[in-house]
Specification:
Blueprint lengths: L1 H27 L5 H5 L7 H10 L6 H13 L13 H36 L4 H15 L2 H15 L11 H31 L2 H8 L4 H29 L3 H6 L5 H10 L3 H29 L1 H7 L2
């Protein structure tokens, strides 16, 4: 297992370097000038513009800037924000707890909705509940987050006044963002739960368990669901990893001070180090969560654990 984890960590290095190179050159050749955006509203002189460009290292050729940034990245340095002057890693760490909180509760909402609906839809295939569940799943997948978030805000914040429209605080601030993000995740998770359960409940060992006289609840929960969990865990883990990288739309709508909003602000202000740093941390988060999911497989299926030790 330790050798497997070590190999996965090594595989993360080229992914980070490749993603960094792609986003670096995309931002370098964009029409946004970080210097002009940084000095916007100050009526700068040509001398001030040139001085700021030299201070940020933007007066050097793109290739030189790239290798300079990569050299710092290999030392664990994500650079310094053009706007705040703070290290990007500190900016990220300051925002990460809010994103982690939102991602966790969105995952809770997604699992709370998708697992029960998916299981019952599989057991009662082609029934009215199955049709309802698949309709909900289709709506969850196809409904844009910004539309759902605005509708929840209009109903519960503007019309009813039950919840704050945005900001960061206690549970009342978390409900609408978590429901918005969790509902969109639940659509795909519901479909995956249903299809995985349908495949499992038709297996011979499920019929054998029923023939032994076990209750239907024990058959479904202990035998069927346990063996159907691997594809479900894969989808849920993938969604959780991306949510940890920052739910940009949801965080922006509800003024949630997370990583996603940090990246959006960096894009708007032309803050290249912040955007690249957030992309790098997204790659790391997704890879770490995927590694955790792969390790969790071993607890669900001992045959997978045996494969790790080879």
């Amino acid at each position: 297992m330790s050798r497997y984890i070590f190999r996965r960590v090594l595989q993360l290095i080229p992914v980070i370097l490749g993603a960094s190179a792609i986003i670096f050159f995309i931002l370098s050749y964009s029409t946004q000038d970080p210097v002009m955006m940084l000095l916007a509203g100050t009526d700068p002189t040509p001398e001030q513009i040139e001085m700021t460009r030299q201070q940020l290292g933007l007066d050097k050729p793109i290739v030189v800037q790239f290798f300079s940034y990569m050299g710092g990245l290999l030392r664990g340095d994500l650079g310094v924000s053009y706007n705040s002057g703070r290290p990007v890693f500190q900016e990220y760490i300051a925002r990460f707890p809010a994103t982690l909180k939102l991602a966790f509760w969105a995952l809770f909402v997604s699992v709370l909705i998708s697992i029960p609906i998916g299981i019952v839809s599989a057991i009662k295939q082609y029934s009215w509940f199955d049709n309802f569940g698949m309709t909900f799943a289709m709506l969850g997948v196809s409904t844009p987050n910004f539309w759902l978030g605005l509708m929840l805000m209009l109903l519960f914040a503007v019309k009813l006044g039950w919840l704050p429209s945005g900001g960061y605080g206690g549970l009342e601030y978390l409900i609408m963002p978590a429901v918005t993000l969790g509902t969109s995740q639940a659509g795909l998770a519901t479909r995956m739960t249903r299809s995985s359960m349908l495949e499992v409940i038709r297996q011979d060992y499920i019929r054998t368990a029923r023939a032994k006289g076990l209750s239907e609840r024990v058959v479904i929960i202990k035998h069927a669901l346990k063996n159907a969990l691997i594809p479900i865990v894969t989808v849920v883990g993938f969604q959780f990893g991306h949510a940890l990288g920052g739910a940009m739309i949801t965080e922006t709508i509800f003024s949630w001070p997370g990583v996603g909003r940090l990246m959006i602000d960096g894009i708007h202000k032309g803050d290249r180090p912040v955007v690249i740093g957030c992309v790098i941390m997204l790659c790391i988060m997704v890879s770490v969560v995927n590694l955790g999911v792969d390790i969790f497989y071993a607890f669900l299926d001992p045959r997978i654990k045996a494969g790790y030790t080879k």
